[in-house]
Specification:
single chain; 318 residues; alpha/beta; UDP N-Acetylglucosamine Acyltransferase, domain 1; 2 domains; six-stranded mixed sheet; four-stranded parallel sheet; 10 helices; 18 strands; 17% strand; globular; disordered N terminus
Length: 318
């Protein structure tokens, strides 16, 4: 497994107020307008969302807090996701997912067998994916031929990603980059434009000419419907991520790995791409989805994604 350098993961917003006697043991993300009072201790991996107050002598360990939350003096929050939407009495608010390696046993959020997250969602995924693949099958064939003709390398890019309960799988996309793009990424990391463990730069030199169009129109992600049919992904869910990204915050990791990763989701729809905010938004929307997963929410996300894609195509060809 690739190791994450903790020093690269620390981030404190300029507007945060941290008492001199407070201690931060990284990796820790501190959002905008956060106040951390005297003798508070935050042990990472941890995220403190915008406009959150950490009281005097409070202890935060391996947790996601906020945004807009007040942790009272002397409170202790560990291995939890703690948001404003819940009561602030700690025993009832901690949305906790303990995590141990597969050979030691796992603990993720679980639902009853006949519930929508366990059964209904899978039926929805199968029906939706079959319909989409039947509709776009001519496009898949045309794009596969173009990828093969316009650049050297395979048609598909197979990325190792973690799925339900951490099980790894090959996430399929049409290849949009030159061969050995992953190796070049390490050389380009010094110009990374997003926070957290993810990587993104404008005008990425690894992207092919056709690849840029496929990315702009999201056509490159159509093969992921085969992952959905195979039970490795869902139509709606957290963005599929590799283990090294998930390891950056265990509480968030265990929440997002409680469901199958999705082709679309809340973060994909609502991320603002603001500098220094992207990872915090990613964590927030993933955990909100796991809290509130339902057929109505999935249908709403699909409809909004369709509207967004239509607007994208109009912008491309208008």
């Amino acid at each position: 497994m690739d190791q994450i350098d903790p020093s690269r993961l620390n981030r404190t917003a300029a507007s945060a107020s941290i008492a001199p006697s407070a201690r931060l043991v990284g990796p820790v993300w501190i959002g905008s307008d956060v106040r951390i009072d005297e003798e508070a201790l935050i042990v990472g991996p941890a995220i403190v969302g915008d406009k959150t107050v950490i009281g005097k002598k409070a202890v935060i360990q391996n947790a996601i807090i906020g945004p807009n939350v007040e942790i009272k003096s002397d409170d202790f929050v560990a291995a939890a996701i703690y948001t404003r939407s819940h009561s602030h009495t700690l025993p009832h608010t901690a949305f906790s997912f303990g995590f141990r390696r597969p050979w030691q046993g796992e603990r993720f959020r679980r639902w009853p067998v006949w519930s929508y997250p366990r059964l209904g969602k899978r039926i929805f995924d199968l029906a939706f994916s079959l319909c989409i693949l039947l509709l776009v099958s001519p496009i898949l064939l045309i794009v596969a031929g173009l990828v093969k003709l316009t650049s050297k390398g395979p048609v598909f890019y197979r990325a190792r990603r973690q799925g339900l309960h951490g099980k790894e799988f090959n996430c399929l996309k049409f290849r949009t980059m030159m061969v050995q793009a992953d190796t070049l990424q390490e050389r380009l990391r010094v110009v990374n434009q997003v926070d957290g463990p993810q990587f993104k730069i404008d005008n990425d030199p690894r992207i092919t000419g056709l690849g840029q169009f496929l990315r702009d129109t999201c056509i490159d992600e159509l093969p992921q419907f085969f992952n959905v049919l195979a039970g490795q992904m869902s139509v709606v869910g957290p963005r599929p991520s590799p283990e090294n990204e998930n390891e950056s915050c265990p509480a968030w990791r265990d929440a997002r790995l409680s469901v199958r990763p999705g082709i679309t989701g809340l973060w994909q729809l609502y991320r603002t791409r603001q500098e220094g905010q992207d990872f915090q938004e990613w964590v927030y929307y993933d955990t909100q989805y796991v809290r509130n997963v339902s057929f109505r929410l999935d249908l709403s996300i699909c409809m909004k994604t369709a509207a967004k894609l239509i607007n994208t195509f109009l912008d491309q060809f208008g």
